[in-house]
Amino acid sequence: MKKLASNLTFQVLTAIALGVLVGSLFPDFGAALKPIGDTFINLIKMLIAPIIFLTVVLGIGGMGDMKKVGRVGGKALLYFEIVTTLALVIGITAANLAKPGVGIDARASVATQSAAQAAEAAKYTSQAASGEGMNWVDFATHIVPHSVVGAFAEGEVLQVLLFAVLFGLAVSRIPAEYGQPLMKTFDRLSHAMFGVLALVMKLAPIGAFGGMAFTIGKYGLHTLLPLGKLMLVVYLTMFLFVFGVLNAIMRFYGLSLWRYLGFIKEEILLVLGTSSSESALPRMIDKLERYGCSRSVAGLVIPTGYSFNLDGTSIYLSIAAIFLAQAFNINLTLGQEISLIGILMLTSKGAAGVTGSGFIVLASTLAATRIIPVEGVALLLGVDRFMSEARAITNVIGNGVATLVIAKSENEFDEAKHQLALAGRDVPPELEPASLLPKVEKQVEERG
Predict the structure, then answer these.
(1) Which sequence ranges are marked TM in the entry (predicted)?
(2) Which of 258, 18, 300, 325 has its CA nearest to residue 157?
(3) CB–CB of 83/402 below 8 Å?
């Protein structure tokens, strides 16, 4: 019993259950617990930039080949585009078959929204009208930071990733007498950062409790009833995507989806409790490295996927758009639905990292189509928080699968570490990330 109580999975599950209970019985108190969940997420965000930087620099230092870095990045982006496009198509198909919006009087429903909900919907409508969240050019240029310090201070994942790749390549090319001591220092710092992460994760149950209590307390389970069919379609579609599409991809590469999910169960529960996929980002890099992926691949693919590989978000946005069209009794043609997919392929990337990005992307997409009324987003305000968990969990699972696929295709997957991870045994020193140092030192000496 004592061993069970000290298990993080058990602790987070218990915290989530207590959060639901507190939010249901004491809604005002539960809503007031929002700072607890937010503070825990901020603790995680505090570590994201340095962990990504150190992981990527050490990985690239060991790889030492710009062509290989470019190949890994190119494969990842190609995979992201194919799978997210497939997710969009699946979402639109599911919405057309299930018809969750049929029978809803959208205009009457929007008219009866509360003043607070109307104001929030107006905010997203205004952002869509100004073009925020769908400017692909601005998104691309934003990847290059104005300053390195600013990128770290603001937690801009892609900017930190770009600098880390360039820094890692530079370190691998400097003389050995400078490169080796630097890489050894970075390796020690990396272990220290993951040590800090381990300390922060002890607070995960508290963060999950606060996040879940806030969600239930503020929005209430009663808000699910009017749009229950929409939620059911979204959850079932994401379930089928994970256990259909992602399972098929894993099997093709000789991997088990079930074993992978069992290995990252703590990260899945953490995302469920906090409704934030970012809360699992640093741990996913560490977990996938322990699962067999090389440090360089995990460090490159996971952070990039958080902006470009949003499978859950893609499914939700496509279903939500069709739902609103059905609610407003708008019959979309095949050509209009194909155009919708094309717009979502761009807008879903352009709003990455923006607060409230789900609504901004949806509002921007509706504004771009000029067919579905943008004010329709007000219909989704009450249930969006309850669907954010499904989006975030699917995004996390999808990014892990992408990392495994790229690692396998690049022969950067260590089967010995993989088997040890499946057996639940500690990784021996010779297979720890520190074992990269001899490889790094050899690369530096060859280029020195």
Answers:
(1) 7-26, 46-64, 76-98, 157-176, 188-210, 230-250, 315-334, 340-363
(2) 300
(3) yes
